[in-house]
Write a structure and sequence with these properties.
By secondary structure, the chain is of the alpha+beta class. The chain has a single domain, classed as TULIP domain (Bactericidal permeability-increasing protein, domain 1). About 30% of the residues lie in helices and about 40% in strands. The protein contains six helices and nine strands. It has helices spanning about 5-20, 25-30, 40-55, 200-210, 215-235, 240-245; strands at about 70-75, 75-80, 85-95, 100-110, 115-135, 140-165, 170-180, 185-190, 195. Strands 1, 2, 3, 4, 5, 6, 7, 8 and 9 form a nine-stranded antiparallel β-sheet that branches. A hairpin with a 4-residue loop joins strand 4 (about 100-110) and strand 5. Helix 1 (about 5-20) crosses helix 3 (about 40-55) and helix 1 (about 5-20) packs parallel to helix 5. It starts with a helix and ends with a helix. Keywords: Signal. Pfam families: JHBP (PF06585). It comes from Culex tarsalis. InterPro entries: Haemolymph_juvenile_hormone-bd, To_sf.
Length: about 250
């Protein structure tokens, strides 16, 4: 996967801290991370970790909600599309992110550049698999499908830009690098159901199902994860001005 996911989470956490005081959360972090503090990186790290662990469902307070990051829904993905067969990973949902650990944070607020690194013990994406002949879609197979990634490292780089709204300065971010290193990756299927004159084409279906399946699924999951994470982060950052996240004093 890639490098921007977790920076988003970190800032999301800081965002939540700027919006609401949380019981048990260090007071200085519950009011944002002081911009010029020598412990800025550590403050962001703690805020992000708190958010990931305790607020991954999207509830920031009784008043503020954002999109859940665990579970996190992904759009349907096309895995293979050639002149013979089309295959899809449908109704995808990712779980396990709330069990991740923040292992490194670096922030340059003058440049609005951030780095976040996470260790993800277990990430699972569940959904449905469908394959069909390109010109005879009634000849198809489908099954439950899962992608399990273990002991992965995620490094995210973010670049922020400021904008003004109602006389206040806000920040939005773009993911510039999203790097996912997977320790172990498994793709599996449940029982298959077939339709149409399937038996005459079973070998072709088997071939496409096994061809580069790990790398194809990994690329699709990574891109979806990156896109949804950036959307979520900016959704959070819209809730409060920059000064609320990173007060100057």
């Amino acid at each position: 996967m890639n490098r921007k996911f977790w920076l988003a989470a970190a800032l999301a956490a800081v965002a939540l801290c700027g919006l609401a005081s949380v019981e048990g959360f260090p007071r200085y972090e519950a009011n944002g991370c002081l911009r010029h503090s020598p412990s800025l990186n550590k403050c962001i790290e703690r805020a992000v970790q708190y958010y990931v662990t305790y607020m991954a469902n999207g509830k920031i307070s009784d008043r503020y909600y954002v999109t859940s990051i665990d579970p996190l829904t992904f759009p349907n993905a096309t895995l293979v599309r050639n002149r013979n067969i089309h295959t899809y990973f449908l109704n995808r949902e990712m779980r396990g992110f709330k069990n991740s650990f923040v292992t490194d944070v670096k922030a340059d607020l003058n440049k609005l550049e951030f780095l976040l690194q996470f260790h993800m013990p277990a990430i699972d994406v569940h959904g449905s698999y469908r394959a069909e002949l390109a010109h005879e879609r009634q000849i198809a197979e489908w099954a439950k499908m899962f992608s399990s990634m273990r002991n992965s490292t995620l490094r995210i780089h973010l670049k922020g830009i400021t904008y003004e709204s109602e006389d206040r300065i806000y920040v939005r971010v773009n993911i510039t690098d999203f790097d996912l290193t997977i320790g172990d990756h498994t793709v599996g299927f449940g029982w298959f159901t077939m339709s149409g004159n399937y038996s005459d084409h079973s070998q072709a279906f088997d071939l496409e199902r096994g061809r580069n399946i790990l790398s194809v699924v990994e690329n699709e999951v990574t891109q979806s994860f990156r896109d949804k994470f950036q959307l979520l982060l900016n959704e959070i950052l819209r809730l409060a001005p920059f000064e609320r996240f990173f007060p100057s004093q």
